[in-house]
Write a structure and sequence with these properties.
Order of helices and strands: HHHH
Number of strands: 0
Radius of gyration: 28 Å
Amino acid sequence: MVDGNDFTIIQQNFGATGLGAGRGWMQGDADLNGIVDGNDFTIIQQNFGAGGAGALAPPEGSPVPEPPTLALLLLALAGLGTWACRPHPLPLSRDQAALGARERGA
């Protein structure tokens, strides 16, 4: 929904340049030209009160995590947790190594 918050965002970021592709619309760059300016204010003004999918929705191709990516991340974290919980042999001190060598008859 386009509301007063959008005007506040434009006011706070007015004149900002070099906004990243696909990210600028969240910083007030409604026309995605990389600059927050009067054109963005006009777009917000014309769409004020509009809601739904057509109202200043993120541009096509903006990065959105896909469900398979989330599943792979969770699987990797589960594997890492399993690996971290298993016992790992500690390195032997010089005295422990010498004792072990004597026991083996070396």
